[in-house]
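Researcher: Quick test of sequence recovery. Tokens follow.
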């Protein structure tokens, strides 16, 4: 968090929170939702200003209730999430793995996202479970940008893993044995893979998709 933000919070500790005006879409774009967008239920306008995007990224965090927000000076601007708190892009690092290459995930904040598991929902959306930070109750969840699903199928055995997951015995041991293998052959890593329902993810991973202002 920016030091100037910390100072503003200390100077004005009781500024009312803001709800509904900022959103994170399924492609990792921050969107400004004015009164008209909120009334009409539209996505809002993408934020293009580079410095503002960087400012949001540096001051993006969550509260104890799993509501993600941008700390704008002394004010919390709560974020409506189209799917998850993070959206990742997939690239291929040809120099990793002793030249064999490796996939790299980068979130909308510009940070490397280290996956611990892969999820595939009922609509074909792919999400990754990250590493739980010290002191955090839940692991972070990131949606894979839909433009990168084709690349994922090229650098992993997503289709085969999904088929195994769909046909596995409905037991915990069988489901836990399903793996998504990265890279080619035996090189690289593998991740647990599970099929999920998108609507269950907020409760499972402890976040709110649409924070609401408390009733008066």
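Model:
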């Amino acid at each position: 968090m920016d030091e100037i933000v910390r100072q503003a919070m200390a100077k004005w500790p009781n500024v009312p929170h803001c709800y509904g005006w900022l959103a994170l879409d399924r492609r990792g774009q921050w969107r400004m939702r004015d009164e008209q967008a909120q009334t009409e239920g539209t996505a809002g306008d993408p934020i293009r200003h580079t410095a503002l995007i960087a400012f949001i990224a540096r001051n993006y965090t969550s509260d104890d209730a799993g509501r993600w927000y941008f700390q704008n000076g002394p004010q919390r601007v709560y974020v409506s999430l189209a799917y998850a708190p993070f959206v990742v892009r997939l690239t291929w690092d040809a120099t990793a793995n002793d030249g064999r290459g490796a996939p790299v995930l980068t979130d909308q904040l510009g940070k490397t996202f280290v996956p611990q598991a892969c999820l595939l929902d009922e609509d074909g959306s792919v999400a990754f479970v990250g590493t739980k930070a010290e002191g955090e109750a839940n692991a972070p969840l990131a949606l894979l940008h839909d433009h990168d699903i084709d690349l994922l199928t090229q650098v992993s055995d997503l289709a085969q893993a999904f088929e195994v997951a769909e046909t596995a015995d409905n037991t915990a041991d069988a489901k836990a044995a399903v793996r998504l293998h990265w890279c080619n052959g035996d090189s690289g890593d593998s991740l647990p893979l599970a099929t999920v329902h998108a609507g269950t993810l907020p409760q499972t991973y402890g976040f709110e998709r649409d924070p609401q202002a408390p009733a008066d």
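The helical segments are 3-11, 35-40, 50-58, 149-155, 158-167, 172-176, 201-205.
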